Batch of 3 targets.
Target 1
Amino acid sequence: MSDVLTGAWPVEAIRAAEHEVMAHVPPGALMRRAAAGLARRCVEVLDRVYGTPVVLLVGKGDNGGDALYAGAALARRGAVVRAIAGVQDERVHRAGLTALRAAGGRLVELEDVRERPALVVDGLLGIGGRGGLRPDSARLAVAAEQWRAQGSVVVAVDLPSGVDADTGEVAGAAVTADVTVAFGSLKAGLLVGEGAVRAGLVEVVDIGLSFPAEPLARLVTADAVARWWPRPGPSDDKYTRGVVGIAAGSEQYPGAAVLGTGGALSGPSGYVRYAGAARDAVRTAHPEVVSATSVADAGRVQAWVVGSGLGTDDEAEDAVRQVLATDLPVLLDADGLTIVAREPALVREREAPTVLTPHDREYARLAGDVGPDRIDAARRAARELGVTVLLKGYRTVIAGPDDAPVYVVKAGVPELATAGTGDVLSGVIGSLLAGGVPPAEAAAAGAFVHGTAGRLAAEAGPVVASRVLDHLPAAVQRTIR
Ligand SMILES: NC(=O)C1=CN([C@@H]2O[C@H](COP(=O)(O)OP(=O)(O)OC[C@H]3O[C@@H](n4cnc5c(N)ncnc54)[C@H](OP(=O)(O)O)[C@@H]3O)[C@@H](O)[C@H]2O)[C@@H](O)CC1
Ligand SMILES: Nc1ncnc2c1ncn2[C@@H]1O[C@H](COP(=O)(O)OP(=O)(O)O)[C@@H](O)[C@H]1O
Ligand SMILES: [K+]
């Protein structure tokens, strides 16, 4: 798969790549490529083109130009195309407007549109946008929202207007799209935060841009996970495949232990050990897990998962300290994060891979408010603590302590927002760590199969964590085969 389909470069890099290509192609060629891809996608979302009412929302920049050229292509196929300017009329892309008019389209005022359009093309603002939408554009974004609520399909040009291209932040009004057609490469703002919600289905039209430097973010694909996922070879035994230790759960919260060990059993390691007070529950649920009552008695492992359902009393703190004192990879979750938030040196001083898996409230305890820029938030905490941070949510963001691109996982579904699914996730990632996968890739691969299991579970019925567990083997199978 081409890099531009999975990498998200910052606006600055996209501009530089654009200039590089423009030096070698005729003027307007890039915009024509972009508009052709956009028009193709617009045709796909319509039942038919001939006679269909289409509204273009047009800003003063090239984003509006793309919309006008695509609108001209639709008008040539018989669509009834009306453009509405989000700025004073004379400031829209000249050549684009000429093309639209030549094809029979017209520039009108919002008030002149009597019939609800089947398709709204959002060309108000692309990567040239700064700050929240100004009032004239915001008014059209609101109109697009209203049409969409009544059944119109909204296609965003490059980026839903009002979304920050690099962060996904939305300040004020913004367009919500069913489909976003992104040019040249993804943008981080289409993958994370509010932008991910606004973008709908995202499709990249390759217009020939190439990038010398690493992207800001990479979308995790099944192919990548399949490459990272260890497979047993003829000379392997259960130990060489890696032993993962789960120190989670308590008498009060046995579920965390059952779900964590269950998650680990679908990972690539050959052996799952449990250490803690929920032995009986684990033994009943998973006879293949070998258990002990404490970390000290658990025997050798190649990676630890510690924290969820442990509580934060002295005993819990002891378990966390013991695990963190090893030179093994450790995944820290839930109560483990609370304990580390009180004493960050516990992880800062570690040399071995350490993965923290906070949701937003846990993150706040560790590093302050997540804020609207989730990529920056994950990076900031990872750098400050010298760890790998997996920030949970609608989109999961994984950042290492270095400057490598962050991973974004979009495999999940909102139904995963139910108690205990995080415990399942921690077990899968722990197993990958025990199998020798580097921390960021282990976290990304774990989140991908976990998200896929959540989707499969949601397709089968209401989602609870044990049903996510039930669907994990199938999720792994379809990802890595
Ligand atoms: N990269 C590529 O290779 C290719 C890129 N292409 C396309 O070009 C697009 C980028 O075009 P662009 O540079 O003209 O910027 P764009 O986003 O249309 O608008 C910027 C204008 O809007 C204004 N404005 C700013 N903020 C605002 C706000 N909050 N609310 C309201 N207005 C605001 C600002 O005006 P000013 O601030 O000066 O008043 C400025 O003039 C890109 O997204 C893609 O669609 C393709 O055609 C082909 C290849
Ligand atoms: N809105 C959402 N869309 C998709 N996935 C979500 C959403 N909310 C939460 N999740 C996922 O569900 C899991 C919840 O984990 P967590 O909050 O730790 O739950 P628990 O502590 O109860 O196990 C994470 O994998 C997270 O990414
Ligand atoms: K747009």
Target 2
Amino acid sequence: MTRKELFEQIKKKESFLCVGLDTDLSKIPPHLLDTKDPIFEFNKQIIDATADYCVAYKPNIAFYECLGAKGWESLQKTLEYIPKDIFTIADAKRGDIGNTSRMYAQAFFENMNFDSVTVAPYMGNDSVTPFLEFDNKWVILLALTSNQGGLDFQMHELTNGKRLFEEVLTKSQEWGSTDQLMYVVGATRAESLLDIRKYAPDHFLLVPGVGAQGGDLASVAKYGMNDHCGLLVNSSRGIIYASNGEDFDEQAQNAAQTLQQEMKVLLAEYLK
Ligand SMILES: O=C(O)c1cc(=O)[nH]c(=O)n1[C@@H]1O[C@H](COP(=O)(O)O)[C@@H](O)[C@H]1O
């Protein structure tokens, strides 16, 4: 999916919501555990309930690969079930020496046909560029993450005066264009979006941390939105585990719709 197509979807649905499919057997409603593939059955019903309110789905790969071959199968079925006009993110946080990164890229872009994959930038140029060699595919590079430990390295000032996340934003722009690169910025660091936008005014940002981690959607939009929205805000647990009863899909729909309604107002306010 191109940047223009993604923006069209955002305008059409009045939403920049990404639903995170962090599907955990210990958290899904017990009545699904007797089905043949509980992970896929859960995802299918979540997708049916939320597809009208979001523009992206982000399965976190850890939740699937921890189940071995069966987990990969559930992931593949989930990916195939997602409507084709919805952006897909393999949240895999990969990145390795060049020939290994190329294999990761093949896994997610050719074998599985995701639109994008999250990548850790810290092994540098040759660990990221193999992911950028695929038409219409995106790399979502970790810049400033939502977790507490994100401060351990990412905020450190380098000898050139930039903080590490600022160096990631600057350097990586030599490797790919705004039509290939997005950055991860945690919603828990909304005020930092002003700094992020100094270095990456036009890029799309994937912003996780709304919902269970307490990030504030209104602040994210205020500091982070640009003239083509430029934001995909993710919520996983806040949506998919809104209930673990038989009404889980209905409650997930309510949670997604509530965020979408708030996004509609924010788009009207900040999209210039
Ligand atoms: O790359 C990510 O998606 C990510 C980056 C980050 O800085 N923080 C973060 O929470 N995430 C992911 O976003 C999701 C957040 O889930 P919830 O906290 O349940 O909404 C998880 O899949 C995390 O792995």
Target 3
Amino acid sequence: MSFKKAMLLLEDKSFFLGRSFGAEGEVMGEVVFNTCMSGYQEILTDPSYFGQIVTMTYPLIGNYGVNNEDVESTKPFAKGFIVRDYKDRASNWRSQETLDSYLKRNNIVGIDNIDTRFLTRKLRTRGALNGIISTVDLDPESLYEKLKVFPSMEGLDLVKDVTPRERYSWNQTDVWISERFKPEGDFKVAVIDYGVKWNILKILTALGCKLTVFSAFSSADEILSIKPDGVFLSNGPGDPAAVSYAISPIKELFDKVPIFGICLGHQLMALASGAKTFKLKFGHHGGNHPVKRLETGEVEITSQNHGFAVDYDSIDKSNWEVTHINLNDKTVEGIRHKKLPIFSVQYHPEASPGPHDSGYLFKQFCELMKKN
Ligand SMILES: NC(=O)CC[C@H](N)C(=O)O
């Protein structure tokens, strides 16, 4: 690996000199911090990170390498990667490649030797900031000139860049997942792919769902044409309120089939119900967010990755019930329709990376399809 210098500059003009790893070049994006202690490969390949530069609060990154199995999509979607201490010696029986070589091969710019604790504290007090990482220009003035015209995440539709153009079928799972999830029946499920994580598809498959995956541009009629037993709304990048074309098809599906939404899918379901979304100060990105399930009073430790949230006050409480609340900041984590078999959560029950407390939600979706 190289020992070339790299620079990170934020929109508040603060800059950090570090060391280049991964690809060389220059990238801009919204800088967010993730508090997971492992799972960098799943994080990098989660399409919801499209448009963002991720910094890990866990200091040692790269030490267990990279493999072909732990990816959440075809390639890394994060724009750039910031770490405290990159370890080039990968030690794990599943490792096939170093993170440095993986990032180089996929043209993702990384920077290490950054005081990620200081950076995270700054993002926490200032809120998410745009940033630029460069290995080709180390002049803060000139980096700032480039960054200042870069758009803010608010108002950006990034789903159009990651959603598939054509529908496809999915029938893969893996041994770890099929140990936890057993077939619950034989269901035909339409997935709307706004940037879906593969772990979701693998869990649904293990539960006995035959999946047809649709583009975000699909109409309700196209989706209903396969006569699905249920519809799943996926996670995805960007500002949910900007994905206007995806909202009315969901609304049309409301009284037709059971629907389950995760993260962006949850936000779009809420928007279709007439509620509003807003941008959080620095978002929730990590594997230890406590969420209270209001029905039972139980607390789930959840995996999360979102910068926007559903506004509690805007929810139509005569038809919808808030089912889950985040115990850190009391934001909405789940909603359910009072009569129709439709529900969604803001967090990630598929985890990957993260704890498995919330896996029951997938079974709940199967129960609704069975009853219907
Ligand atoms: N993981 C996701 O689906 C993220 C949803 C949305 N892009 C947000 O940041 O809030």
